[in-house]
Amino acid sequence: MSAVDTPVAAPTLNKDEILRYSRHLIMPEVGMDGQLKLKQAKVLLIGTGGLGAPLGMYLAAAGIGRIGLVDFDVVDHTNLQRQIIHGTKDVGRKKLDSASDTMQDINPFVQIDKYEVALTSENALDILKDYDIVIDGTDNFPTRYLVNDACVLLGKPNVYGSIFRFEGQATVFAYEGGPCYRCLYPEPPPPGLVPSCAEGGVLGILPGMIGIVQATEAVKLILGKGELLVGRLLLYDALAMRFRELKLRRNPECPVCGDHPTIHQLIDYYQFCGVPSQAEEPATVAGDLTPAEVKAKIDRGEDFVLIDVREPHEYQIAKIGYAKLIPLGELPKRLNELNTADEIVMHCKSGMRSAKAVDLLKQSGFKKVRNMRGGILAWSDTVDPTVPKY
Amino acid sequence: MAKILIPTPLRQYTDKKDTVELGGSTVGEVLSALTSEHPDLRRHLYNDEGKLRSFVNVYLNDEDIRYLDRDSTAVASGDTLTIVPSIAGGGSTDVRG
């Protein structure tokens, strides 16, 4: 975590800044007053991924005086399809450093505070309290509920955006008596029911669109101009190229922002969302096989069936030649293709879906069924590096 | 007939259809017709007690049915029902999925 110094209030723009911001300054909606508001504003950006990329770049360009970045991830090749704040040269670097370099290149007049941490119930209030506006660019339910509750407790607006495949949502929560995330969704889905972007995929341009909606709302909040996206949920469908708007209301019974709140401090959000905390290892079930053990069985010519429960388009990207494809969704209808007498090993991309498939088969009376731990990604790492990772 | 807009994460349970048109005089009736036609959808919309799940919202046109008459909300021909489930993606790397 970098030291956070309170910047000296800057009541004026120098000659270079005036030139840089001239297209703002000549608009009455921004003008010198508005640009100085932007310069004195403090915005916290949680996540420098798909949403964080356009957010960081545009907020820096707009001349927000101080921008906090929270991220502990490292740039990898799969990020580059959408996280345009990072480049190929940045693969392997901390996202904080890469994002900060890009933003400082765009605008050296911006102060950037870097927090190389995972946002937790222990550190959230401390990090958020110094900022005027919080922007949620995270990728998981526990952090979203954490950001929401922290914003409500501190009275900070929470500029929300979320994406999945071709669809996005955006709104501003917790602003002047408006609704919060819990008013919209009181509870998260149980783990596994809603696929993540890593499982479900995302159109690379989509976070650009939603991130820019969030950046626009942040700038409007600072300027005090326009109609804010408060009490309105914006839905965007990139395939249909359609924006829709739904009404959002504060729920008087909301446990955090309602009339009689029951939540007065941050809670354990991993427990709330029913997912093991990040510190814990993924559960390994006795009887799981490693990819090397599966390879050894194939090499020994053992009689067993290897089932790949991924989707056909994933099978096209990378496969283990020995495996037969039965997508998880089709498995209940295709159990007749399997024999309870056979020894069966299931695999998928990372081992999660195949674990579900193993459970499903066991419930259906199969006894000799096991999971290949770590999926085809682990197979590529430990058995056959020619199998591409995706 | 009411038009039901199916969100991307749930299209795998509606034979990939993004809209379904069905009859019914209340929201409950239309959704019931929907889950009869696509039974796999039921457990994603309703919990074991038959109540709409708390991470799935249903809107009649632009209004949340929780602030209307919930399942009993009257539906007129030409109305649009939108199902909006919670999504968490931020386009970052979530390898824990």
Uncertain parts of chain B: 93-97
What is the residue-averaged pLDDT of chain B?
89
What is the SS-derived class of chain A? alpha/beta
Number of domains of chain A: 2
Strand sequence of the main sheet of chain B, in spatial order?
Answer: 2-1-5-3-4
CATH homologous superfamily (4th level) name of the largest domain in chain A: NAD(P)-binding Rossmann-like Domain
Spatial sequence of strands, sheet with the most strands of chain A: 3-2-1-4-5-6-7-8
End-to-end distance of chain B: 38 Å
How many strand units of chain B?
Answer: 5
Radius of gyration of chain B: 14 Å
State the share of residues found in helices of chain A, binned by percent.
25-40%
Proportion of β residues of chain B?
15-25%
Poorly predicted parts of chain A: 1-6, 278-282
Helix content of chain B: 10-25%
Strand coverage percent of chain A: 5-15%
Using only CA atoms, what is the Rg of chain A?
24 Å
Would you identify the CATH H-level superfamily of chain B? Beta-grasp domain
Mean pLDDT of chain A: 92
Coarse shape of chain B: globular
Helix-strand pattern of chain B, N to C?
Answer: EEHHEEE
Oligomer: heterodimer
Kindly describe this structure.
- The complex is a heterodimer of chains A (390) and B (97).
- Chain A is α/β, with parallel strands linked by helices.
- Chain A folds into two domains: 15-272, NAD(P)-binding Rossmann-like Domain (Rossmann fold), CATH 3.40.50; 291-382, Rhodanese-like domain (Oxidized Rhodanese, domain 1), CATH 3.40.250.10.
- Chain A contains 15 helices and twelve strands.
- In chain A, the strands form two sheets. In chain A, strands 3-2-1-4-5-6-7-8 form an eight-stranded mixed sheet, sandwiched between helices. A four-stranded parallel sheet of chain A has the order 10-9-11-12, with helices on one face.
- In chain A, helix 4 (52-62) runs parallel beside helix 10 (206-223).
- The two termini of chain A are 31 Å apart.
- Mean pLDDT of chain A is 92; it is low at 1-6 and 278-282.
- Chain B is of the alpha+beta class and 97 residues long.
- Chain B has a single domain (2-85), classed as Ubiquitin-like (UB roll) (Roll).
- Chain B contains two helices and five strands, in the order ββααβββ.
- Chain B has helices spanning 27-37, 42-45; strands at 2-5, 19-22, 56-60, 63-64, 80-85.
- Chain B has a five-stranded mixed sheet, with helices on one face.
- The radius of gyration of chain B is 14 Å and the shape is globular.
- Mean pLDDT of chain B is 89; it is low at 93-97.
- The chains are: A alpha/beta (390), B alpha+beta (97).
- At the A-B interface, strand 5, helix 9 and strand 8 of A face strand 4 and strand 5 of B.
